[in-house]
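haha ok so turns out i had the wrong file open the whole time. this is the CORRECT one, sorry everyone. sequence first:
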Amino acid sequence: MENKEKNFASAVVYVRNAENRLEKFLKTIISTMEDNFAHSEVICVNDASDDKSLEIIKKTSEIAKSTSVSVINMSYFHGLELSMDAGIDMSIGDFVFEFDNTTLDFNPEMIMTIYYRSLKGYDIVSASPDRKEKFTSNLFYKVFDRFTDYSYKMTTESFRILSRRVINRVSSMNKTIPYRKVVYANCGLKTDNLKYDVINNIAFDEDIREKKYRSNLAANSLLLFTDIGYRFAKFMTVFMMVVSVFMVLYSVVVYLTANPVVGWTTTILF
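then structure:
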């Protein structure tokens, strides 16, 4: 007990149809919390799972000795962002770990690595797999970075740690901005990103609803938080003006040099 961290640590875990990997993941999180923190909690947000995820959470929670394990059951599918917001609202820790999925492709020591990094003055520290991103993810982040001026570079993140100061600052922003990464990028506090070696290259399976949700989230984020919509509108305005000028000149030339059908010139011009 004397060698454990005195800060209260919360771990918020997003759960969606993860029965095949959830037990091992939760055991790892609970073990890490109990081995390193004197006071800790694990909050599982069950986003209307259709499998046995809830039963596995209840079963696995029995091994916890000093860590409190609780469950938030979403009444219907809300998606990652709203579900994680619900878990963060319930957390009481001085530091809060966010696990966006239950894929254990990292060394458990990485959890404490980002914690110790946060103690050096970083309010947000994220962990990203050191591997090539999927084409769609890479394209999204490149477009997002291209059309924004955020100093915070967007990338794929598996989990992160937040200080209580971050949560207090962004609590009101989360209600209106449906994308946590954008909220964190705009909070004005110090951030850092650490890479980790992938130890279990497990494919992350998503059901149809999750894929549709992520696609809609990506599209909405590009429209809401970048100037890509403004630039497209400006381009279309200039393009249509050029087309209009060309048609006017073309109509005048045809009227003066050819023998157009009666009424054609006035129809085109007016």
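The CA atoms of residues 89 and 168 lie 10 Å apart.
again sry for the mixup
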